[in-house]
Amino acid sequence: MITESDLDPALDWRAEIERLRLQKNAVILAHYYQDGPLQDLADFVGDSLDLSRRAAETKADVIVFCGVRFMGEVAKILSPDRLVLVPDLDAGCSLEEACRPEYFKKFRDKHPDHLAVTYINCSADVKALSDIIVTSSNAESIINQLPADQPILFAPDHHLGSFIKRRTGRDNMVLWPGACIIHEQFSEQALKTLKSLHPDAKVAAHPECPEGILLYADYVGSTRGILQYVTESPEQTFIIATEPHIIHQMEKRTPGKTFIPAPGADGSCTCAICPHMAKNTLAKLYLCLVNENPRIEIAEDVRTRAMIPLQRMLEMSTAIPKARHAAG
Ligand code: CIZ
Predict the structure, then answer these.
(1) Quick one: which of 116, 118, 152, 300 is 20 to 30 A from 239 by CA?
(2) Whose CA is nearest to atom 8 of ligand 1?
(3) d(CA 133, CA 143)
(4) 223 Cα–ligand 1 center, Å
(5) Domain that includes residue 204, residue range
(6) Is the CB–ligand 1 distance for residue 223 below 6 Å?
């Protein structure tokens, strides 16, 4: 196994990764929250579900997911016969970590009449214990398809859960108390100050942000939704309240527009850089292709149980309208 200390610092990463991608018939995926060089090397850049679906549609033998572990797991659940690699197996997610399957099972057991609607940001084990998986793009529409009197458990993000509760008017939703460490960093006070400095700027925010941030948003939506909003909007300046590496895609798709990362309490945006996504580097991407490791492995019984709520989501998503361009 080659390690980082064996590497020649003068190596041409791009050329080497390109060579290995062809040699191994690999497809490289990069989440919007990865840094620019990783996004630019990838075959597909997108959100976790979209990337996993696109990889499943290819004929690649190897899927390399530059993202966090649960995303690699989604790719493996959808493509069990492929080798799924991640540059760093320690790239986790605060939402996943705060929702351990043994506690989630107890939560379910305490609410036997509730349907477990679970955000995709969770482990394969938690998916396997859930009834329906949702993403931030389809959560509202899927919950609206459930009978109004159906009690729901929503995990693991309580900010997204509260947002959906407000949007759908459902009082019968019990929320797991998890949160994303990066979306919780944004400061309402600093955002107010920034808005006063840029009165024409529109605020686009992810629903994993606390309500105090969403109150200032002109648009609230998933990564894909935010990207679509800033691309299609006639406005020129946007304050972006999600992981700031997505701005790389925005600048590529709409050159000339101005994107300002939403600030943390100290007025800077660096607080919102995801430390887990930042674990992935070009060197680790190269190494995982050379070593064919780290691999995502999921026990087959867990994978098949996790596939059921994912499949339900895919079936319930077919009728979803395009992203709305209004905050709610
Ligand atoms: O599912 C994803 O990729 C995440 C983490 C968020 C989103 O809004 O797309």
Answers:
(1) 118
(2) 222
(3) 11
(4) 6
(5) 183-272
(6) yes
